[in-house]
Specification:
By secondary structure, the protein is an alpha/beta fold. The chain folds into four domains: 207 residues, BirA Bifunctional Protein, domain 2; 67 residues; 168 residues, Rossmann fold (3-Layer(aba) Sandwich); 176 residues, no CATH class. Strands 16-15-17-18-14-19 form a six-stranded parallel beta sheet, with helices on both faces. A hairpin with a 2-residue loop joins β10 and β11. α1 runs antiparallel to α2, α12 packs across α13 and α18 packs antiparallel against α19.
Length: 701
């Protein structure tokens, strides 16, 4: 009857407001994080048996609301970074302890509640330590269990104070809070004692599969360390697979990267679970039969895939806002006349660009679309100067640091990523109001959830919004496509004339791509000798490395890393430089030397780098590597501690979003991974496309 299952973990601070999400999950409630992101678990409220909050007697009034409580706990873990001149999380910031315990199936709901509260009172003594404890009892699939969230800091009349060291013996840092016994044994003993006192019987220990493996401490020199780590990793993999068998979890994973999924997506998901045939069929039926799953049909009534009610509801809400805002006039006619005078006097815009600029002013939401090379950046910069001269406060946003860097170079001094802006708005360090105009570049790269958060922030503050992008390019890595829907339903000025290409055939090919005529554009590149056919991936890689005068694109990360090493080896001409240093990175182990190219994969404000930034190595050493980034700034980092970088000669097609590059090549290594609309982006100035097919007809088909 007594269960030994218990899991204990530390909840660390993070930009995705994880404690708010966890609290919403525990309470089966809907809550908003500090960045405005909504966490909604109300669809699982029927699994909630009981829920409560234990707070000190002298706690502030706001402490009675869990959402406000945990957001204040997060704010306590923030500090000002003097070097980066911005707020950041404290190093190794910890917000709470999260404990999960299994409850005996044989006991009643009332028994479960009494058992849990007695355990909390005896083991954690919240009144004595003045900590906050949120608890809940869940029962799903005959699996009664409880969640306990314990704040790391004491709560007083003035808010959260110092950390409670008395509850934090050394063993906590190893993941186990008791020094005298294992927690699983202590939990089982407590249940047996409770059952003996209440029912007068001696409870046997129930043999239940332990879903989580406790991580004991072991010395770095422990000879069995690697084997233990492997076992723990395998246990975690089993846990994750078990969680992914939940149909709702499966639906959310299937729609995380795309708004819809098809039979092939579902097949791959099932293959990753490694289910037997009979179980796989039953699982598919449970997923497609779930209340959240919606069928999608084309105009002929044919089934083309599925989505979820959650995704569809979010898309419809964002689209309704967009339609309402584009029909809402907010700028006066006198403002528009002033805009016309400024445009004619101060900007060297084409007639098409001037016309687009005049159409961008007047609505709460404005849309500007155009392919690469049509002058979107020039038009947006003219819009910025126009707005600033008329007394508006302009902020430029973009989905990636790369695009932000380009915006700053073009004249937008006040530019940042969308995530950064929403994060600062949530913490009150950034202000938007009715005199603010938010210009968003590369809007087609924004996923639906982020677009929803952005729209919510704009509506809350009364700001104006301008979205610019290419509705035919790669969409977001996550579920997206909202910008294309906005264009379809709301319209907006379009820039069609391509100015970037020097040669006539390249400009014509770009116009063909803009019109969706991919085959004709490919014919132009083929006729110009820019498409090369080879028989193997190795040969394509070798040709790309030999011809690489610029950046090289590939469809998969595996091929990108192979290309990086091949290009580095080709440039070294088979000789490793004497001053090269061996390094370990998130993209593998290799050597690096001065003059070689690199790219960052992680953002680190202390170092001064952002994900997707590129640079050239200035000097290398075992303890310090100096990089000159492409924007001209110089950063240093310790390669022993920072591993979020790799070689910078190649990347996936998403690396080309928002970039202007003079010469690039591409290895067509995986036909299933290429989207012709996205492929058109780097092909504007291709040196060559190295294909694995035998002829042009196969490639174009």
């Amino acid at each position: 009857m007594a269960s030994r299952f218990i899991r204990i973990e530390i909840v660390h601070a993070s930009d995705d407001s994880s404690i708010t999400k966890l609290s919403a999950y525990v309470a089966r409630d809907q809550r908003y994080g500090v960045t405005g992101l909504r966490y909604d678990f109300t669809d699982r409220r029927d699994e909630l048996v009981a829920h409560g909050l234990i707070i000190p007697k002298n706690a502030p009034d706001w402490a009675a609301v869990p959402e406000k409580l945990w957001r204040e706990a997060e704010r306590k873990e923030r500090t000002w970074d003097r070097k980066a001149k911005c707020e950041r999380w404290k190093k190794d910031a910890q917000i709470a302890k999260h404990i999960v315990v299994a409850l005996p199936r044989e006991l009643t709901d009332a028994d479960h509640r009494e058992l849990l509260l007695e355990f909390i009172s005896k083991e954690f003594r919240p009144r004595e330590h003045c900590v906050v404890i949120e608890w809940a009892i869940h029962k799903d699939n005959n699996n009664p269990h409880a969640h306990i969230l314990i704040s790391m800091r004491a709560l007083g009349p003035d808010g959260f104070g110092n950390k409670v060291r008395a509850m934090n013996p050394k063993a906590w840092r190893a993941g186990m809070p008791r020094n005298d016994a294992d927690w699983d044994e202590a939990w089982a003993d407590f249940q047996r004692e409770y059952i003996r006192k209440r029912y007068g019987v001696v409870a046997a220990e129930t043999v239940r599969e332990r879903a989580y493996v406790r991580r004991p401490r072991f010395a770095r020199a422990d000879p069995g360390r690697e084997e233990k780590t492997r076992k723990f990793a395998e246990a975690d993999r089993i846990i994750r697979n078990a969680q992914r068998l939940n149909p709702l979890v499966a639906l959310r994973e299937l729609t995380r990267h795309r708004a819809i999924f098809n039979v092939e997506d579902l097949r791959r998901y099932c293959a990753s679970l490694k289910l037997p045939d009979d179980e796989r069929l039953a699982f598919i039926h449970s997923v497609l039969g779930h209340a959240q799953c919606l069928e999608l049909f084309n105009k002929r009534g044919e089934l083309v895939g599925w989505t979820t009610a959650e995704v569809r509801s979010m898309e419809e809400a964002v689209l309704r806002r967009a339609i309402r805002w584009t029909q809402s006039r907010t700028f006066s006619s006198s403002w528009e006349r002033a805009t016309g005078r400024i445009v004619s006097r101060h900007f060297g815009l084409s007639e098409e660009q001037s016309r687009a600029l005049s159409e961008l002013v007047g609505s709460r939401l404005s849309l500007l679309r155009g392919r690469a090379g049509t002058g979107k950046s020039t038009t947006l910069n003219a819009l910025r100067e126009t707005l600033e001269r008329c007394g508006w406060r302009v902020m430029a946003l973009a989905p990636t640091n790369t695009v932000v860097s380009d915006l700053r170079k073009s004249g937008f001094k006040n530019a940042r990523t969308i995530h950064s802006a929403l994060w600062k708005l949530g913490r009150g360090t950034l202000k938007w109001d009715a005199r603010s105009v938010i210009i968003v570049d590369e809007a087609a790269m924004i996923d639906t959830k982020l677009m929803d958060r952005l729209f919510a922030a704009v509506e809350r503050t009364g700001a104006r919004l301008v979205l610019a992008g290419d509705d035919r390019q790669f969409a977001s890595v996550d579920a997206g496509g909202t910008f294309a829907e906005f264009v379809r339903c709301c319209g907006g000025p379009e820039l069609k004339t391509v100015y970037r290409q020097q040669k006539k055939w390249q400009a014509e090919a770009s116009e063909d791509l803009a019109a969706g005529d991919i085959a004709r554009a490919l014919e132009s590149y083929y006729a110009a000798g820019r498409i090369v056919f080879v028989d193997s991936l190795e040969e394509a890689r070798a040709r790309a490395a030999a011809d690489a005068a610029g950046f090289v694109y590939a469809a998969t990360n595996a091929e990108v890393e192979a290309l990086n090493l091949a290009i580095q080896g080709r440039r070294r001409a088979g000789h490793v430089p004497a001053d090269a240093v061996d390094v370990q990175t998130v993209r593998g182990n290799f050597s690096i030397a001065p003059g070689e190219r690199m790219q960052f994969y992680e953002t680190d404000h202390e170092i001064g780098c952002a994900a997707a930034e590129f640079g050239t190595v200035v000097s290398v050493g075992q303890r310090i590597i100096r990089i000159e980034k492409d924007d001209g700034s110089v950063v240093d980092f310790d390669p022993r501690r920072f591993h979020g970088w790799g070689l910078g000669y190649a990347g996936t097609a998403y690396k080309g979003q928002g970039k202007t590059q003079d010469r690039v090549s591409a290895v067509y290594d995986n036909p299933l991974a290429w989207d012709p609309r996205g492929m058109s982006r780097p092909m504007l100035n291709f040196g060559a496309v190295h294909c694995l097919v035998s002829d042009y007809a196969t490639f174009a088909g």
